[in-house]
Amino acid sequence: MDQRDLDLKIWKELAISKQLLIKTATDVLGISSECSDDELKTALEENMAKVKEADERITSARVDNEAKLHELQQQLRTAELARKQADEENASLKSSLESTESAMNASKQSNAQELQKVKTQLDEKSKALKKVNTILADTPENVVKKLKSLNKKKHDENTARKKAEDDARALRKTKVELEAEVESLKAQEEKLKESVKSLKSFSETQRGQLLEAVDDDTTVDELPELDEDVLNAIDEEEAEAA
Questions:
Q1: Residue 5: pLDDT above 80?
Q2: 30: which DSSP letter?
Q3: Three-class secondary structure of residue 157 per DSSP
Q4: Within 10 A of 108 (CB to CB), how many other CB atoms are there?
Q5: CA-to-CA distance for 144 and 150, rounded, in angstroms?
Q6: Are residues 232 and 206 in contact, defined by beta-carbon separation less than 8 angstroms?
Q7: Rounded Cα distance, 192 and 182, in Å
């Protein structure tokens, strides 16, 4: 086989390959295999534009998906923080609830005691009211008798109080009189004591002069002995009274 035949064979195979490629391209592009080169070019350009647009949409979708994924991750972190905060608040609320229940139980006990106290007071007031109602329900004659009895009792109490006051005034007056009498007796005792002392001194002086005037001392009697204990007792009583 010479060179020309070889070249012809190669060109033939290339033509066949081109036809197969065009047939494949037209099938993919959905156009007739008998189309012109311009139609094929236009179809290819349109398809490339669609591919480019698809790539752009895919890229945009990927960016959007990444943004949404980031947003979802952020929301997930926020939700996790919110869950932790909710758990803490739940624990705090549980503790507060337990404290509230404990306080309520204590309050119930206190309220029960207070209620019992109020009931006791109401019972006492009810008894007092019954007594008042009993008095009010009494007959006018009995009411008058009771009033007279109360007035008499009050009069007797006033009389007794007045008598006690009169007795107290009389006792105070008697006390004053006795104190005055005691003071008078003290003054008289003091005068008597001074008189006794003066008399003793005068007697001793007179006896001394008499002894000087007589020759025999035996003729002059001894002076009576003065009871010093009595005078000392009087002085002690006055000191204690002062």
A1: no
A2: T
A3: helix
A4: 10
A5: 10
A6: no
A7: 15
